[in-house]
Specification:
The chain is an alpha+beta fold. It contains four helices and four strands. The model has no long low-confidence stretch (mean pLDDT 85). Keywords: Membrane, Transmembrane, Transmembrane helix.
């Protein structure tokens, strides 16, 4: 039976490896995971989208601002067309700015919630009758996740 466990890189990983070796488990394999080096892309492509749109509020505010500015443009000097375009551009910029600020605060809060990420995968091969004890040892040493595969 193979048991896969994920850990953050800490002294608990060393403790669980030494504890499993004391219990007689010899087939251990620890694999460190690489962290993502680049930031995720801000703009979506046609083939990959994350469900986040930065122009929704911008388009909404562009329509509202252009209608209001065009109606006021009948009274102002440049006329309704120029003022409608000025209102549309300023509404779009305001909406995108609001979306970027909201996105920045969401990512900051999400990072605080997800500070614990898996850094090491520990693969343990043991007999099926020992699997319950190995699983208990892994959970007691703060494994972040665990999976069992019967062979």
């Amino acid at each position: 039976m193979q048991i896969f466990a994920t850990f953050d890189h800490s002294s608990y990983l060393e403790l669980v490896i030494s504890r499993l070796e004391e219990e007689g488990v010899q087939d251990l394999f620890a694999v460190p995971l690489d962290k993502r080096g680049e930031q995720p892309k801000l703009f979506d492509t046609i083939h990959q989208a994350d469900g986040l749109s930065l122009i929704n509020k911008g388009m909404f505010l562009a329509v509202i601002f252009s209608v209001v500015a065009a109606s006021r443009g009948f009274v102002l000097e440049w006329g309704p067309i120029y003022w409608g375009l000025i209102g549309a551009v300023s509404g779009f910029i305001l909406g995108v700015t609001i979306d970027l600020i909201i996105l920045k605060f969401k990512n900051k809060n999400r990072r605080k919630l997800k500070e614990k990420s898996s850094e090491v995968i520990l693969i343990v091969e043991c007999k099926e009758e020992d699997s319950k004890r190995v699983e208990e040892i892994l959970w007691n040493h703060f494994a972040l996740g665990l999976a069992k595969i019967k062979q």
